[in-house]
Amino acid sequence: MTSDDAVDPVTEAPVVEITGATVRFAGTLALDHVDFRVHAGEVHSLMGENGAGKSTLIRALTGARPLDEGVIRIHGKVARFARPRDAQRAGIAAVYQEIDLLPNLSVAENVLLGREPRRFGAIDWPRMRREAGAVLAGLGIDIDPASALGSHSVAVQQLVAIARAISREVSVLVLDEPTSSLDLEEVAELFRVIRELKDRGVAIVFISHFLDQVYEICDRITVLRNGSLVGEFRTEELLRIDLVQKMLGRGAEQLVERPRPEVDAEPRRAVLRARGLASRRLRPTDVVIGEGEVLGLAGLLGSGRTALARLLSGVDRPAHGRLELDAREVRLGDPRRATRLGVVYSSENRRSEGIIDQLSVAANITLALQAQRGAWRPLRKARRDELVASWIEALDIRPRRPELPVGVLSGGNQQKVLLARLLALAPRVIVLDEPTRGIDVGAKVELQNLVSGLADNGMSVVFVSGELEEVVRVSDQIAILRDGAVVDVVPGSQVTVDTLLAVVGQPDEG
Amino acid sequence: MTDTPVALGARPSLRERADRFRARRASWIPVSAAVGILVVMFAVGQAYFGNFLTPRVLSSLLLDNAYLIVLAVGMTFVILTGGIDLSVGSVMAFTGILCARMLSEGAPTGVVIPLVIVLGALMGLATGVLVQVFEVQPFIASLAAMFAARGLAFVVSLSSIKLEDPFVLALQSTRLAGGGWYLTPTGIIAIATVVIAALVLHFTRFGRTVYAVGGSEQSARLMGLATARTKVLAYVISGTCAGIAGVLFTAYSGAGYPLNGIGTELDTIAAVVIGGTLLTGGTGYVLGSMIGVFVYGTIKVLISFLGAEQSWTRITIGALLLVFVVVQRVIVARSSRS
Description:
The complex is a heterodimer. By secondary structure, chain A is of the alpha/beta class. Chain A has helices at residues 54-61, 84-89, 107-112, 125-138, 154-166, 184-199, 211-217, 240-248, 305-312, 335-341, 350-353, 361-373, 381-395, 411-423, 441-456, 468-474, 497-504, and strands at residues 16-25, 28-38, 43-47, 69-74, 77-79, 92-95, 118-119, 122-123, 172-176, 203-207, 220-225, 228-234, 270-279, 282-290, 294-298, 320-325, 328-330, 343-346, 429-433, 460-464, 477-482, 485-491.
C-alpha cells in the first residue's frame, strides 16, 4: 500500500481525497462543502478553532460519522465508510488525545488484541510478545511488551497507541491532539516516530493547537473556519500571523461599536482582583476587573483563556495565588460558595456543564436560584412564572414557551436560558466562557449587546471568546493570553483585531 | 502467566528485574495479599489451637466450600466485565431443589443434572440479555433474576426434599483418601472449574475480551472486540456455575431446600473481592477468588474452633471486606495518578 520511493507530495496523486464534504447537525452546517487531501509521505495539519469542523471531518474520514454530501476517495477509489471498521480496512488509523487503550492489560495485548497470534485456538503468548516487541522496536520504543500498559507514562501509552495503529497495513494515520499531555522531550520522541512513519510513505494528518509543533513537523496546512474551507497552504509559505488570521477569520459582520467611556476617565472601583493565580495550564497571573467593566480574555485555543476564566469564577482550585472580591479573599474551588458571593460562571461546554436538555425552559432558568434558596424554601408557582416570563421577555428567548424542553431550542436561545439562570441570581460578576460558540450571527450580536447592557448596569463581566472581533467589540479591557500566560492587558478602545492578532499569533521568544 | 523472559541483549540488573517484575505483575498484588492473610490465619490458628493445621481440617475446607468456589468462579467473570450477579444464590437454590425433586420422582440422573445446569445457564442468559440488549443496570437485572429464581424454587417445592439418588450422594461421600487427607468428587469439580476458567481467561480471545471490557468497554469496542457477546457470555457462565453449584450443594447437604443459599450471592461477592478482583472490573483472577473462598472458609473454621457464635463469621468477613475495598481504592487511585 505504501510506496518506498521518494514521493513529491504535490505531483503524486493523493492517498485521501475528500471533495464537497458536507455534514449537517440540527439544521446548522458543521461542514460546508469542504475539500481535503493528503499525500503519501507528508504530514498534513488540519487547523481551526473550536467548531471549525476539524473533528467532524476526522470523524467522516475514520468512519465514525458518514458525510451527508461529498465523496471520500482512497487511492483514487470512492470509499463509503458506514462504520469505523470500514475505514480501518481501507488503511486509515486514528490515535486520539484520550488514548483508547486498556491500561489493565499488557502492552503486547494493547498492540495486537483482536488479531493476536494463536496456536491450537489458544493465544500464543511468547509469539504475541515477540511480534508486539518487533512493532515497538520498529518505532524505536524500548519497553517490555509483557508489562502492564498502565505502568507506563501517558507519552509511552500514546506511542503504544500509534504502534497498534501501524501494526496493520496502514496508509493514513490521523493524530488528533496527540501532544496535548506530553512534555517537550516526549513531543520530540513522538516527532521522531512521526518522521519515521513519514519516511515509510504513510500519510499523516496531524491536529494540534500548538503552532510551534505544527510549524516544526508539518509539510502542509489546511485551514477550516466555521465549517468551511479557508484554504490549503504549504507550511513554509504561510506566515504564522497569516495562519492565525485565517483561523480566526475576519467576519464581515458590520456592527455598531458600543460607546465606551474615555480611557483616562477616573479608574473604576475594583471588584474582583486576582493575585498570582496559577494552575497547571496557567502561569501566575494578576488581573483586576472593575465595577461595570467588561474584561475580555483573548487568545488561541490552549492559550489558557478557559483556565483563567474558571479560576476567576472560583470554579477550579488554583495551584497558587488568591482571588479577592471587594478586597476580601475568596476561597477557591467551590462554585457554590462563589455563587453565594455573587460570582457566577457559564461554561464553554453548554451541553455538558450548562443546560439540562430534558428540563423545561422555566426549570432551567430557576434551577440555580432554587438551589441557592435550598430545598425547604420552594419558589411559589406564581412568583416563579412571573420571574421566568420576565427573563424570557428581557432576553428575548424564543419561542416564548417556558414549558418547552430546552433541548429543542436553538443554540443561541439555549445560551440565553443559561444566561437567564445566572442573572436570576443577581450576580456581581459574571464569567462567560465562549457564550457565542456555535450560535448564528444574529444571536451572537444579540448576546454581545446583552453583555454590554449588563456592564452598563454595573455588573462586571469576564468575556472569553476565540473570535477576536467579538472580544474587541465588547471589552473595556482585554487580557491577551499566549501559551498559558497573560502577555498584555490593553484597553479595548486602543486595539484593533490586527494589533491583537500580532500579539496572539507571535511565536515564543527564545 | 508464563515466566518466559523477553530476549534482551545484556543481562538485566537486579533493580531492572525488580521494576520489570512490578510492571508485569502489579495486578497480582491483591491476590498475594489474600494469600498472605490466609497464611497468617493458618499460623494463628495453629499457634492458638495446636491441632488446627491437620489434613482433616484442610481437606474439609475444600469439601465444605466446593459450591462456593464454583459460584465465585462464575462471579469472577461477571465482575471482571464490570458487572455484578446477585442471582447466584437463588439460582443455586432453584437448580438444587429441582434436581432433588426430579430425582425423587425417578427421573434419570443423566438427564436431570445436565438439565438443571442448562437451566442455570438460561437464567444467566436472561440476565445477560437484560444487561446488554435492554441496558438494564446489572444490579437490577440480576436482582430480578434473583427474585424469579427464588420464586421458581418455591414453585418446585415448599419444603425440603431428601436426596436418595446414589450417584449424586456419591459426589459427596466418595473419598479419595491418603494419610488423613481426602478429596471428594465435589472438590475435584470445584478445582477443575477453577483450572478451566483460568485457562479460558488467560488463553482465549474471549477471556482477554472479558478483561478488556472491564478495563474500558468503549476502548474495547473501538478495538473491534466482540464486547456485547462477551458480556452476555459472562452472565451465562455465572448462571452455569450457579447450576453446577446447585447440584454440588444438594449433594453436600443431602437434600434440596427452597430457602438454601439466601445471602450466598453476597458471600460469593465478598470472596471474589477478598481474592483481589476489582469491583470496577478489568483486574482479578479466578485463582484469587478461590483463595478468597478459602479465607472465608477458614474464618468459619476458626470461629467454630473458638466455640464462638457463627455470626462472628459475618462480622469478620465484613471487616476484611472493608479492608480490601479500601486497599483496592488506594491501588486504583495510585494507578490512575501515575
